[in-house]
Amino acid sequence: MPHRNGFLYLVAIMDWASRKVLNWRLSNTMHADFCVDALNEAIAKYGPPEIMNIDQGSQFTGSAWITTLTEAGVRISMDGRGRYLDNIFIERLWRSLKQEAIYLEEITDGFQARRVAKNWMAFYNTKRPHSSLERRTPREAYWLGRDQKLAA
pTM for this structure? Predict the structure, then answer.
């Protein structure tokens, strides 16, 4: 995420079936800690997923991330090297965030960047319908999917 003095780094934990962003974190470093913190918060709030798909970034191949998933009983699916299409839903999220929010403002610092990301993520989850979700928002699709699993 560009800003006046450099870049900030954003991680999102997404439910693929509903496209809901379960948690996200912004950091001024590429250390794995902020990614693991976001993952732990998502697991605490929503429970562990069956499978976690990740790319080969160092944050996701390091022991902290792998150990967190393994201890939670989550199977790991890793994208092929340079295969952005393997994780197309998160790549689409980044594209939409940049085009609909980040590139429309001159972000001057981390506080403003966090505010822009927070507002857009809330909009994305609760107000932005998706054609692939039968015009539901990710939040609506997520809870509908959970209700259907419970009823089965």
Answer: 0.88
